[in-house]
Amino acid sequence: MPRLLSLALLAVASADLDLANWMGQLAPILGDATLLDLSLPGTHDSMTYDLSDTLSDGYEGMSAATSAILHALTPGLAGRFIRKQGQTQGITITEMLEGGIRFIDFRVMYTVGPDRVAGGKDWYCLHGCESKRKAIAYLREVRSWMDAHPKEVVVLWASRHGNVALTGTAQYPGTTPAERQAFFKQVEDVFGELLMENVSLNETSIVDLQRRNKRLLWFASDYVESTRSSPRAADARSIDNQLKGGGYGREFVDFAKQGGSKLRDDRARNQFLLVSMSVGPPTPPSKMLRSWSSCRTSSEPTRNGRRSAQRPRKCRT
Ligand SMILES: *[C@@H]1O[C@H](CO)[C@@H](O)[C@H](O)[C@H]1NC(C)=O
Ligand SMILES: *[C@@H]1O[C@H](CO)[C@@H](O)[C@H](O)[C@H]1NC(C)=O
């Protein structure tokens, strides 16, 4: 199947592949391919294009107290600097979807809004700094886009810092299950009938998902508490998250050569293979300068200081 599929993809690519509607366009040749058979282009730390200058609460590797102090200080101090270190994306989530991206690495945390020292908390996206808007606002954008593109299937993975396994307050420090569940309730309200419910990923064809309009897969870290084991979400522990050293070098090439059989092994175990081209596992802020993530989509300085104006880089998932 994968070989046939790539030949078919080539055939379509030589005609006019419409990136905004590629899943719909490919439907006639997808046969019984499931979501676990395709390579979905994805973005890493997807929401970092819209960060404020305020450090988020609960940032990886920092105590709650330090984080709270920095939250108050960063806009005037190092916020701008930290924001730039944390930015991996330069186009909006709608532009990503429009450009063919179908996997979104959605980092969220419960925190006081940007540029406020105190007050009520809500869920914001983060990567060091927190997003300008509430997380739910970006999800509404995804929903509108999906309504306008009725055959596209989108996978979102919610976590605080890209960890599939941590649960409870280890995943989302300083939060209660009720606060986490309230966020998932908002997610359910936004996506409604689009949410895949009781879907076995390795046995349900994409064509079937399109036909039944079950087009949004919500992977949740801390699945049991955050979603109360909802049938409308999937446990992030079924993501096989492979970090292979930045998408280059020996380790990555060796891995990529085995990609096909790895994909099949994972499908047999109902695991969603995610191949990250980020340079490494989550790093604490002290090492943040080195943690430049790949999949940059804008013209940003590279690690050695040169600028590269590249087209959006597709990370396989
Ligand atoms: C999904 O499974 C749950 C629990 O088994 C059940 O209550 C629910 O009705 C199912 N939903 C659908 C759409 O089959
Ligand atoms: C799907 O995954 C389950 C494990 O959750 C496995 O038992 C089953 O054989 C898999 N199906 C296919 C078609 O690979």
Automatic annotation (TrEMBL):
N-terminal signal peptide: 1-15
GO terms, biological process: lipid metabolic process
GO molecular function: phosphoric diester hydrolase activity
Compositional bias of kind Basic residues: 304-317
Keywords: Signal
Keyword Signal: yes
Renumbered residue ranges of the record's region Disordered: 277-317
UniProt key word Signal: yes
Compositional bias ranges of the Polar residues kind: 291-302
Protein name in UniProt: Plcxd1 protein
